[in-house]
Amino acid sequence: MESVFEIIAEPNRRAILSLLVSSQQSVGEIERQLRMPQPTVSKHLRVLRDAGFVESTVDAQRRLYRLNPEPLQQVDDWLAPFRRFWSAHLDALERHLDRMEQVTQTKKKARRRRRGANRERDKGEKK
Amino acid sequence: MESVFEIIAEPNRRAILSLLVSSQQSVGEIERQLRMPQPTVSKHLRVLRDAGFVESTVDAQRRLYRLNPEPLQQVDDWLAPFRRFWSAHLDALERHLDRMEQVTQTKKKARRRRRGANRERDKGEKK
DNA sequence: ATTGAATATGCCTTGACACGTATATGCTCT
DNA sequence: AGAGCATATACGTGTCAAGGCATATTCAAT
Predict the structure, then answer these.
(1) Under 8 Å between Cβ of B47 and A54
(2) CA A49, CA A67: separation in Å to the nearest integer?
(3) Could you say which of A31, A47, B3, B93 has the lowest number of CB atoms within 10 Å?
(4) Chain A residues within 8 A (CB-CB) of chain B?
């Protein structure tokens, strides 16, 4: 199974992870919400657990699975250089549009506002 | 082939993408730098191109491939909720450590500095 | 101790995909 | 036109992982 990227390549596993963002869940709850057969859920959880994406605690017959963010941070780290790349490209696009505007003289303020919003977004967070 | 996640699950494709961050490259250059057979490179480039990760321009017999950041932004977007999750967890860990310290009375300032650095890092960019 | 619920595991089949090797296409130069 | 380089594609093969189904395990309650 190797890398974190192969783990999150599987759609059902991504669904499980997304589900666990809000709160921890039992296998049965996952099964019901994602409408997938129980063995499928268990197998994917096994993979996720072995790869460190989730952890589990025992609650009687149930097992509660919760997220462990570290492996996902690896993905985030890999993405870092590309983030620099695409903000550079955004800036280049902006400059290009600005040049166009110096010719056409149209609404510049609206785009300025958008650019500000994008910069915020690039910093992460923000709902 | 479907999703962007399956595309970047392949190590050679990730290598190609990383290589293209610095600048555009011909097939032959990729082949040499990554030491993989030419058909392999061409096939992976085909996949990356179909999925929109790269674009190509023709230069006589060569083809120059360059990065297109949009699909990677999808990955970044998917990661967003988890980023919130793990910074919440970092904070919780910090609070926990702080409570421990109130008992053990040890170096608190060093950790405060680290927390600040993490917050910067979460905003993206930097370095 | 037995039954039933919740979860895990084993086996089998199927399909996708990566690779190697060979070959095709396209361009340049003489 | 022909030779040679750069890149793309076709085909056959092996591997591996996901799904379905059956079954095993574990715990609770009676």
Answers:
(1) no
(2) 9
(3) B93
(4) 3, 5-6, 8-9, 11, 14, 17-18, 21, 67, 69-70, 72-73, 75-76, 78-87, 89, 122-125
Nucleotides of chain D within 7 Å of a protein C-beta? 4-10, 17-23, 26-28
Question: Could you tell me which of A12, A22, A77 has the C-alpha nearest to residue B3?
Answer: A12
Instruction: Lay out the sheet containing A62-67: strands in order across.
Output: A25-26, A62-67, A54-59
Burial of B57 (0-12, 13-18, 19+ CB in 10 A): exposed
User: What are the residue boundaries of the structural domains of chain B, listed by start?
Assistant: 4-68, 80-122
The one-digit pLDDT tens for each residue of chain B (127 residues) are 779 999 999 999 999 999 999 999 999 999 999 999 999 999 999 999 999 999 999 999 999 999 999 999 999 999 999 998 887 777 777 777 777 766 655 444 444 434 333 434 443 333 2
Domain B4-68: top CATH class? mainly alpha
Q: Which residue type sits at A39?
A: P
Neighbours of B71 (CB within 10 A): 19
pTM over 0.90: no
How is residue B43 written in tokens? 């096939």
- Where are the extended beta strands (E) located within chain B? 25-26, 54-59, 62-67
ipTM of the complex: 0.80
Residue B104's pLDDT is 59
* Spatial contact of A12 and A34, defined as CB atoms under 8 Å apart: yes
